[in-house]
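__Record contents__

***
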Amino acid sequence: MAGELIAQRVGRVVDPRGLPVAGAFVMVVGGSVPVPELALVSDNDGVFHLGLPSGEFELEARSAARTGRALVQGDDAEDIVIVLDGDGGSPQVAGRDWSRGTRRRT
């Protein structure tokens, strides 16, 4: 990873109603390139900040019994949104449901 450009990404952890989840643990659980193991904690507004190199990564957020996952492109400019739905749900990123390959309508 030495010498690779790192993109600073901003994300939010929310519940199914879109309300922020404070104190959720956010982890990189997989990726197309190795990244150091780390865990972040969302702030009172559900926000977290993460630096990622180019590549595709899977993030997981956990709070109490709820979990959520998101697929993230390290160099994408869109904010990351992880929805905690209790069962991990479909991996999503910034309004895109990657399990279907199409944009969700909001």
